[in-house]
UniProtKB/TrEMBL annotation, chain A:
Main location: membrane
Gene3D superfamilies referenced in this protein's UniProt entry, alphabetically: P-loop containing nucleotide triphosphate hydrolases (3.40.50.300)
Pfam families: ABC_tran (PF00005), oligo_HPY (PF08352)
UniProt-recorded name of the protein: Oligopeptide transport system ATP-binding protein
TrEMBL record, chain B:
NCBIfam families referenced in this protein's UniProt entry, alphabetically: oligo_HPY
Occurrences of domain ABC transporter (ranges): 23-267
Protein source organism: Lihuaxuella thermophila
One Pfam family this sequence matches: ABC_tran
Key words of the record: ATP-binding, Nucleotide-binding, Transport
InterPro entries: AAA+_ATPase, ABC_transp_ATP-bind, ABC_transporter-like_ATP-bd, ABC_transporter-like_CS, Oligopep_ABC_C, P-loop_NTPase
Matches recorded under Gene3D superfamilies: P-loop containing nucleotide triphosphate hydrolases (3.40.50.300)
Annotated protein name in UniProt: Peptide/nickel transport system ATP-binding protein/oligopeptide transport system ATP-binding protein
Coiled coil: none
Organism lineage: Bacteria, Bacillati, Bacillota, Bacilli, Bacillales
Database matches in SMART domains: AAA
Taxonomic superkingdom: Bacteria
Amino acid sequence: MAKVLEVRDLHVSFKTYNGEVQAVRGVSFDVNKGETVAVVGESGCGKSVTSQTIMRLLPSPPSMIKSGEIMFDGKDLTKLDEKQLEKIRGAEIAMIFQDPMTSLNPTMTVGGQITEGLMKHQKMSKEEAKKKAIEMLRLVGIPSPESRISQYPHQFSGGMRQRAMIAIALSCAPKLLIADEPTTALDVTIQAQIIDLMKELQEKVGTSIILITHDLGVVADIADRVVVMYAGKVVESGSLDEVFYQPKHPYTWGLLASMPRLDQSSDQDLQPIPGSPPNLLNPPKGCPFAARCKYAMKICTQEMPETSDVSSTHRVACWLQHPMAPKVEPPAMAVGGE
Amino acid sequence: MSQLQTVKMETRTTSQAKKDVILEVRNLKKHFILGKNQVVQAVDGVSFDVYRGETLGLVGESGCGKSTIGRTLIRLYNATSGSVKFDGKDIYSLKGKELKKFNQKMQMIFQDPYASLNPRMTVMDIIAEGIDIHGLAKGEERRRRVIELLETVGLNEEHADRFPHEFSGGQRQRIGIARALAVEPDFIIADEPISALDVSIQAQVVNLMKRLQRERGLTYLFIAHDLSMVKYISDRVGVMYLGNLVELAESDELYDNPLHPYTEALLSAVPIPDPETARTRERIILEGDVPSPINPPSGCRFRTRCPKAMDICSQVVPTWQEAAPNHWVACHLYNDEAKRES
């Protein structure tokens, strides 16, 4: 399969008064053509920093790309200057943000915000762009787009704004769409509408999607592959079924076991992960999860485990995979309670 | 549906007489006046009971009025009309000593652990504020109680003299819980207590709340939009839509056998973290958005989005009825008379 994006050993830090926060510490993953890759993890795990670094949206200073490369279409995005980036942003890589209330421009009509990109990147005339904008609004399921196009974001509801944002993002038919928590601010019935819309549009347009989320339910619904991040590192990655049905990392087990499921009875106790994530001002030397891990061994606190292959698509960074490590069984709740 | 005979209001006494009602809510309304004759009907005629020692979950989408109910029950708002009885006494006519007693017996845990703790007070003073107001303890005894509470919620003595900004979200929510427990309440209203927390931390807080309920015989009103978590923690669940309660039943019954079309749609929209289930299950995707509570639809408020709407739904407000034992619903589909007429 053709690779659209390759992230290789990316390190991103922020300078603060208290020192350097190492938000992303050696992240690598690929995105293939037409697939949806979900990046999951808790707040502060570096998932949003990774996505914003791909778009190069983080101001520098305070952010710094310490090392690594992001290959897109034969170019290393970390090396491009503002002018070159402008050609890529919106045209080849587009982004949908979490909060539809604050990420649209309140002083511009919705139509104006869609045509802006079309006129800049596709050199369309104003008339053509307007026609295309109406078509896009209709595509994302906004009724009577002809009149909606001249309205302002405050005249749209939350779900409609998120639809409008998707219309803006997809208007130039980007190769890659980054959706950063696209449904977190929405109610469940609206969330279901938006997920359906994204799936449908992906089939039609063939865009690759990076979905940043903390909601494993959304992941199960839409993703082809899953990347699990913890404290700035990728701890496990694999196909959707591999990560959900044969998870190998104790953090992934913890995530799956700490969520109640609607289709299960409530007599099982939830198994929370004790403690909280480490401070990235001064990240631990060994595995970042060791302090919260039930299975931690001596080596876990001393050295970061190598990433090992479980299958050709399934990779995990855990000392339990080492041939000398004891064999442990994941908790029943982590593997679907079967 | 024929076996689901319409059972009218009177039958409730027979089926539920054994249980001890701690809170009785009847036809509660809370309207907010916006001026220019505009009124937001945030809660519009809600009736339910809460039994001693149980957890009643309230779910619904944003703007459905679930938080307004919580705030009205604890008298942060005054009800527009309707009655609320706590331990048999009408809470809106309480005065003086009785009011103070009520304030002690009912406590609240708030959604945002960052905004609900005073940043200028130490944890000790935050937790002890209720103890001071109600004169429950002084000096050494006061300190001993606070430390005991901190240990109960999984913190310890050294945390007592710190300020809220020194804590993580999960720890702050624990402080909020300790504050609520400090005055030894019987009834706790938890308004989205875990939605601001990360998944792995949510389970910690929920397990803590469950343990406290077992140890202290607390009654919870658990308000949330996360249906999986509500099902997990609640004995019974009420579903709200646009200011009305549309369905109320025991949680397994509600999830296995939803009657109201809105409950059905809501349940089918909840993402389930299981790829196989996600691939195979049928989802009901509702069209459109929730209408404005300023000018709600006539008749049944859900009819504009309801896949099963009939003619009568726009004309008559459905009655709140017990369609099956302990299973309450407000929908014309379960009203035989209404069905015949349409």
